[in-house]
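Attaching the record inline, Q. Sequence:
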Amino acid sequence: MTTGHSEGVTLRVGAEDPVLSTRLSEELTAFNNDATGAHDDRGLSVRVTDETGELVAGLVGWTWGGCAGISEVWVRADRRHEGWGARLVRAAEDEAVARGCTSVIVSSMSFQAPGFYRRQGYLETGSGGGIPGGHTRHHFFKELGRTETDR
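Structure, as predicted:
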């Protein structure tokens, strides 16, 4: 749907746009790299499959400038409560350390897994409402490579 047009420029609102998403990611990465001097951005993934090759659990995120971020974590319903979430996060943290990262950030909605991240040693750094159903988004931070006694 076109919602505005001015001097050869058109504003369009629509559904998901993978081309736009890729372009924005590229542009913002370049901007962020220039602003910070960090040019080591890399994707991060952890995948668990069963004996048939079907996905059991997965995690996607990123590393950049000494920091890691967890974007999405999912465990198949029939395999939940078997420790896969903790194993995924630990594997991602280990890879982040191997890449030189010293911290991890992640967000979780109140109906997802804020308690899980607290149990993994993440510190809640903020929260905000406005999520459908009256839920809250929680933001977490964890220092890597330090034991509890180092803190």
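The beta strands are 2-6, 9-12, 42-49, 55-64, 67-75, 103-109, 123-131, 135-143. Helices lie at 18-36, 84-98, 114-119.

More tomorrow.
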